[in-house]
Amino acid sequence: MPPPQPTPEGPPTGKTTSRFRVLAPEMAKIRSSRSPVPPTTPPSASASASAPASAAAYPSPSLPQTQTQTPPQSSPRPNRPSLSSLFRQRYATLPTPIRRTFRVLRILAPIVPIGIFFSEHVLQVMWVRGPSMTPFLNEDYETMHTKSDMVLVNMWPFGGAGWPWERKRRLERGMIVTFRSPANPKHTAIKRVIGLPGDRITTREPCMKASQIVPFNHVWLEGDAEDPKKSLDSNTYGPVSISLITGRVIAVLRPQFRWLKWRDWEKGVVEGDGDHRFGENYRQDVRQRVLKEAVKLERPQIE
Q1: Which of 269, 26, 267 is CA-nearest to residue 259?
Q2: Residue 120 and which of 10, 165, 293, 295 are 20 to 30 A apart at CA?
Q3: How far is the CA of 224 from the CAs of 130, 239, 286, in angstroms?
Q4: Coil, strand or helix: which one is 252?
Q5: According to its UniProt record, which residues of this chain constitute the active site (predicted)?
Q6: Same structural domain for residues 157 and 218?
Q7: 58-109 pLDDT, tens digit each
Q8: Residue 169: which H helix or E strand, with range?
Q9: Active site amino acids
């Protein structure tokens, strides 16, 4: 079968339509001479800049994209100011005198509990009222008593500074101690230790017994006043348990400072009595009423 012959250029017929035409060699030369092919040049900046625009004008077909559903995001919560920031804001608006007062209170806040602990368990200053310890304390009570004596009381339960060799505080005759009164526990009294456990005490008014043996873990306390009616002591409520004793007087601060030495009680010497205002043998009659260790008992110790 012979190959098909190319048709000359002409108008298309109505029966067949062709998308391409085959030109004769002469016609192809004529057309090529009329529209020469432009030389190839590197793309310029304007061409590169217009490329995205042309790409946007004629978008390329894109691949189908899968859409993923994201959970709805909750709106962020508003930041609430803290309590400290609110306090600082309110504090800045306060007047200057009130702010100064707050500063002082802030400084005193840690000092107050330390002071309370120190006064309750270490050292405490007390004022002596009443005539029960005259003339050793409140010497001018009978004449022109205007100011009470001030004493320093050791409240530490281990005696001294609490060193290992002083783990126990022993009570001795002649010591001046503070204690809760058995007649009124809310009242703190101050008296002198006269008798220890096992001592036989010759009592005085208003005690109904002529003599009394101090039981174990108790002491006999009396005031220094000569008149028994001026002192409410063991002659009224009997021996005092050492559990009621709260401290020991170690010094007199006012009106004349002096350290108290309980050992001088047996000698009849009063501390600081250089001119013998209290006599040569202070309260000798009281010591004569004590029969030491009439019954053998262990001495009391505050642990």
Answers
A1: 269
A2: 165
A3: 12, 17, 9
A4: strand
A5: 132, 191
A6: yes
A7: 455 555 555 556 666 666 666 777 777 887 888 788 888 888 888 888 888 8
A8: strand 169-170
A9: 132, 191
